[in-house]
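Training component of the fellowship. As part of building independent skills, the fellow (R.M.) carried out the full modelling exercise for a liganded target. The chosen ligand was nicotinamide-adenine-dinucleotide. The inputs are recorded below so that the supervisory panel can assess the work.
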Amino acid sequence: MRVLVTGGAGFIGSALVRYLVAEQGYEVLNVDKLTYAGNLASLKAIDNHAGYRFLKADICDRKTMAEAFASFRPDRVMHLAAESHVDRSITGAQDFVETNVMGTFSLLETARHYFAGLDAASRERFRFLHVSTDEVYGSLGDDGLFREDTPYDPSSPYSASKAASDHLAKAWQRTYQLPVVVSNCSNNYGPYHFPEKLIPLTILNALAGRELPVYGRGENIRDWLYVEDHARALDAIIARGRIGETYNVGGRNERRNIDVVRRICEVLDQRVPVSGSRQELIRFVTDRPGHDARYAIDATKLEDELGWRALETFDTGIEKTVDWYLQNAWWWEPLRQSYDGQRLGILPTAEAKAG
Ligand code: NAD
Ligand code: TYD
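Fellow's submitted model of the complex:
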C-alpha cells in the first residue's frame, strides 16, 4: 500500500505517518512545506525506515505535486496539510485561505488528473481522504452533538477556510467522481503538539512557573481526542469508509477549558511538586473574538459502520501527554525559542469594540 500524506510533519500528520509506517507497514510519502508548525523531529522514530520518504513541497505547487504523484503512484492520499491555529487565523487569515482553500483546490486538481490516468484496477483502489475539523459546524449550546448532517456554520477564519475546503472535496467527488471521503474530528491532544494550542501551552507554561491564560471564564467546552486514536480512525476511514461520505471522529470526552487547565496543574504537581499549587498561575484573560462555546461529536457512524473506538479516555490521555512533555524537552525546547508562548489572536482595541 502506497500512501501520500500531506502535512505529515505536523502534529496529527506525524502521528499518522508514524502509525502507517511502523504499525501498518505501508510505504509513505510525506509531503510538507515545513511551516512553523512542521517539524521533522516528530518523525525521528521512523525516518530511517525503508518505507518512509519525505518531500519538502507546498501543496499549492501544482507542478511539483504532479511529479510527486507520478513518481510515487499513491493508492491513497491523506490530506492533512493546513494552517490550523484559530488564534493565528484571527490576526492573519491570508495563509489560511491560501493553504486550506487554494491548496486543497490545487491538490484535488492534481489528484483528479492523476486518477484519470490510472488503469481500471488502480482507479478501483484509489481513495482521497480530506481531513477536517468539527469546527466547521460552528458552536453548540448546552445540549446536542455534531452529527454528519449538522449544517455548516463556521465562526473563525480557520473554520471558514476548512469549511470551504470540505465543500471543494465533496464537489470533486460529485462532479468528477474522484473517490473522496471526508472526516471531521474534534480537538486532538497528545505528544508532538506545537505549544501554541491550549494543552501543550498550559503544560509548558505551568512547568516554567508562568501564568496560565484562560480565555473568558474558561467555560467553553471542547471534546478531546488523543491523537493516536485519531490516526487509527483516519486509516479505518480511508480503508473502509464509503465514497462521498463524511465521518465524524471524537472520543466522547467533553471538558470545560478551566477543568482541562486545572487537571494539567494537578498532574504536574504530582510529578514535579512545587510549594503551593500551579493552579495559582491561572489567569482569566480577554476572550477570543467569535469564541465558540461548545464542540461535541457524535461518532456513532464511525463506531457502528467501521468498528472504531477511542482507546484513551481524557484521564489516561492527559497523564500520558504530560509525561511525554516531561520526558521530551529535546523536542519542545527549540520551539520555545521561536515562539515563547505569548498571547495570540487579539484584535486592536477599536476593531474588538466594533465587533
Ligand atoms: P499542524 O498545524 O500541526 O500541522 C500542519 C502541517 O501542514 C505542518 O507540518 C505544516 O508544515 C504543513 N503545511 C502547512 N501549509 C502547507 C502547505 N501549503 N503545503 C504543504 N504543507 C503545509 O496541524 P494539525 O493539528 O496536525 O492538523 C492537521 C489537519 O487536521 C489539519 O487539516 C486540521 O485542520 C485538521 N484537524 C486538526 C485538529 C486539531 O485538534 N489539531 C482537529 C481536527 C482536524
Ligand atoms: P485551542 O487549543 O487553540 O483549539 P481550538 O481553538 O481549535 O478549539 O483552544 C482550545 C480552547 O482553549 C479554546 O476554547 C480556546 C481556549 N484557550 C485558552 O483558554 N487559553 C489559551 O491560551 C489557548 C491557546 C486556548
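The panel noted the following from the submitted structure. The mean pLDDT is 97. The first helix runs from residue 11 to 23.
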